Amino acid sequence: MDPVAVGLLAALAGGAGGEAGRQAWAGLSALVRRPFGRDGGGRAQAVGSGEVELVRLAEDPGDQGRAQSLSTALAVRAAVDEDFRARLAAWQERAALVRTGDGAVTNTISGGTQNGPVVQGRDFSGLTFTTLPPPAPSPPPEDAT
């Protein structure tokens, strides 16, 4: 199982992603607070649940070290608790759909003449534009000779 991305954890802890982000963070919090499964119960004393790291990151979402600590704690718990691993994988799939603002966008318009709307940004869907066609070119002047 891939570790949970540090950037995703920090973004969700900081409230990124709106309501979907808050729900994802609440889901992770509930998952971490679940008791260890049958297979991980015997090793629970040696492996933390991740709750301490979760609370610490919530206190300071911008601290990448705290986000890394939570990611590591989740990976260790997933290694010893099969039920947690399956639930964490399902959580990760859902959380990956939350837009957290990560990723760079570069918009460039250059050269020529643009006739029509230009939209710059990221992750657009369902846009529709109704515009007039560009004006017809003027006819060349007649030769008056």
Structure commentary:
The protein is mainly alpha-helical and 145 residues long. It has a domain of 90 residues. The chain is built from six helices and no strands. The protein is rod-shaped, with a radius of gyration of 25 Å. 23% of the residues are buried. The model has no long low-confidence stretch (mean pLDDT 84).
In short:
By secondary structure, the protein is mostly helical. 47% of the residues lie in helices and 0% in strands.
Succession of helices and strands: HHHHHH
- Indicate the proportion of strand residues: under 5%
Question: Any idea what the shape is?
Answer: rod-shaped
Instruction: Report the sheet with the most strands, covering strand number, pairing sense and barrel closure.
Output: none
Radius of gyration: 25 Å
Distance between the termini: 82 Å
- Beta strand count: 0
Mean pLDDT: 84
User: Structural class per helix/strand content?
Assistant: mainly alpha
State the helicity in percent bands. Answer: 40-55%
Tally of helical runs: 6
